[in-house]
Structures are given as C-alpha cells and as structure tokens.
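Lab notebook, entry 93. We have the chain sequence and a SMILES string for zinc ion, and the next step in the workflow is to get a structural model of the bound complex before anyone spends time on docking refinements. Request logged below.

Task: model protein plus zinc ion, output structure tokens.
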Amino acid sequence: MKSNATPGAGVTVVRGAVFSCPVCGAEISVVRTGGGTMSPRCCNTQMVLIKRVNPIYVCPTCGSEIMLVRGNKERLEPVCCNRPMKMPVAGSL
Ligand SMILES: [Zn+2]
Ligand SMILES: [Zn+2]
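Result returned:
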C-alpha cells in the first residue's frame, strides 16, 4: 500500500479525518486543518489514520459547526437557528 505515512513524518489530513490509537483505542478527529502534516501519538505509539472521515455540518445562518463523531448520518437531521445544517465538505477526499 502506497502512502506517505512514514513513522514520524506525518500526513496531510482533511477536516473530519480520524486517527486511532492501536493500543488503547482512543480516537481523535481533525476539527481544523492548517495545511501542515500531522503525526499524533498516544500510548508512546504512532496513531493510525483510519478510513472513516467524520461528516461536518455548518449552520448557514450563524456559522456554527458540528461533527458527527459516532452513529449513522442517514438518520441525522441537525438543525440550528431553525434551519437545517449543511455539509460543506461532502466528498472532499
Ligand atoms: Zn492510546
Ligand atoms: Zn445557527
């Protein structure tokens, strides 16, 4: 498998990307990207970038953002300011 995930080198991530710790099962999700490369560690081990990307929804009125961390997005109907929140980054990976 071709990847740039050389230990310690870091990877470029998208918003919603998820890293998992192979030792304790901790998961982190990227809320904001700055264009740098990321190489999070947990339990003295390199965390693994997993396939899932958490969907992000934005309120068109106030700009609030939420991230679906767990569950089924087919059933999710996020509402803010009395309006449905929208996914701005759908398909960007
Ligand atoms: Zn850990
Ligand atoms: Zn709002």
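Notes for the group: The pocket of zinc ion (ligand 2) is lined by residues 59, 61-62, 64, 80-81 (CB under 6 Å). Worth checking against the assay data. The CA atoms of residues 2 and 11 lie 13 Å apart.
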